[in-house]
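SAMPLE LOG
Freezer: B-3
Tube label: C17
Construct: single chain, 187 aa
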Amino acid sequence: MRQIQLITSRAAIAAALALNLVACTSDDGGATPDAGPVSSQPAPSIDAEDANAAASTLAAYRNYVGAYVTASNKGDYNAKLDRFVAEPALLTVRQDLLIKFQQGLVTKGEPTSTPKVSTVDTSRRPFTAEVEDCFDTSAWDVISKKTGKSVRTTGQATRYVVIAKAELFDDGQWRIREVSAQRERPC
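STRUCTURE (predicted):
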């Protein structure tokens, strides 16, 4: 499987600077010797198909998050989400919305999201990609429709990593197939 890391130029520069700082300092802040020679191999290039797949995957993920947030804020468990989400994630999302509806819960506000495509595989069909997101729910709360008060669990992480796996379907649309909220991984 061919996987290509997709990183923006700024992120690559920031990562290189951070690695340089780590390599040049020890725990006590003093200089340490260089760890050895740096590989002279160039980073893999991103071809047009991979770039298009990454952009389409990111759009599908953002559309999924937007549609889910809108449905959750309205308490709409019948929301039309299948344009952006496919099984098995679609079933999970619909169940979540239905359970909230049955319990008289809605969400209020907007989460912030900083997704980036971490891998793309266009070497075989169906094309796939993975998104890693730092999802922040501190401004997006679950509330009781009856009381209007928050029902957020005390101590629950509000900023955590979300991993989403996407696939290109026969109709030419990228859809999110799996979503894993990794609340134990803060970001």
